[in-house]
Amino acid sequence: LLMTAGLAFFYGGLVRSKNVLNTMMMSFIAFGFAGVLWAVAGYSLAFGAGGAVVGDFSMAFLKGVGLQPNGTIPDMLFMAFQATFAIITAALISGAVVGRMRFGAYVAFISIWGLVVYAPVAHWVWGGGWLAGLGALDFAGGTVVHVNAGAAALTAAVVLGPRTDYGRQAMLPHNVPFVLLGAGLLWFGWMGFNGGSALAADELAALGVVNTLVAPCATLVAWALLDAFFAKQITAVGAATAIVVGLVAVTPAAGYVAPMSAIAIGAIAAFPSYFFIRWRAGTRLDDSLDVFAAHGVGGATGAVLTGVFASVAMNPSGAVGLLFGNP
């Protein structure tokens, strides 16, 4: 839950001062609309019986969702935990459209998107849908949350087009301390995002927390070296962005890989996201806060590398990756 508040500060610090309250409210309003709609219908569409593409309405309005166990935790608590995923995924998209989308239109968009895109994709991976049937590994939402939000952000940026003064004047972050605060809150909240996906306070949760710590450390080192070489200076915004990219990349892998593999994933993930941001800066693609580079590219990188580094010694599914004999 804290991640969404952290995201508000991260995004709020990156925009110009005239956009700060609107940008921060785009994250906070997701608590309301995405949260209510998840309880009313989204949870059922994601985790209801359904078929390969989407669930059904058997649990609409939380029908039958009580304190009975859902694996290791009460069903109602699992619903609430998943609600926090739905909320932040909607909020993530806002970073691509700041400064040029009416607030009401944004609220309508995330409300509809949460039901017709997010819930079905969650069903594909976690609800017994077609990706689950293929054996896809996504421990805490690399695909469900980050690739999903990144794709939506890229599409929204293309459809809306650039801001009127994009490319004609510098759009500098108005409050870099906000950006660093937001990155720190995100990192702390991400411990629950990844570690909590074990759905128990056990060894798997411990692995998730450790990997969530070490992967962004490696991304930060790699990003700083890239900045020092290409930009000739290490920047605070770059450091904050690196932390988020590392967190995104390790999310699908957190419960499947050893800590040294998490460090490798974090370091590798810096490269495609860093160079995508450098490339985008010279185009007319106004993904204002580089949501696609951090979440779409970072999430896809992490998803692929999960299949490289997954170790049977670390993962309860028994699935192993390329380096452990399963190409």
* Secondary-structure content class: mainly alpha
Helical fraction: 55-70%
What general form does the structure show? globular
Strand order of the largest sheet: 1-2
Strand proportion: under 5%
Order of helices and strands: HHEEHHHHHHHHH
Report, as a whole number of angstroms, the end-to-end distance: 37 Å
As residue ranges, the low-confidence spans are: none
The strand count comes to 2
Count of runs of 4 or more consecutive helical residues: 11
Mean pLDDT comes to 94
Over all CA atoms, what is the radius of gyration? 19 Å
- Mind describing the biggest β-sheet? 2 strands, antiparallel
Can you tell me about this structure?
This protein has 327 residues and is mostly helical. It is built from eleven helices and two strands. The chain has helices spanning 2-14, 20-47, 75-93, 103-126, 130-133, 142-160, 176-195, 203-230, 236-250, 259-280, 291-309; strands at residues 69-70, 73-74. Strands 1-2 form a two-stranded antiparallel ribbon. Helix 1 (2-14) runs parallel beside helix 3, helix 4 (103-126) packs antiparallel against helix 6 and helix 10 runs antiparallel to helix 11 (291-309). It starts with a helix and ends in an 18-residue tail after the last helix. 50% of the residues are buried.
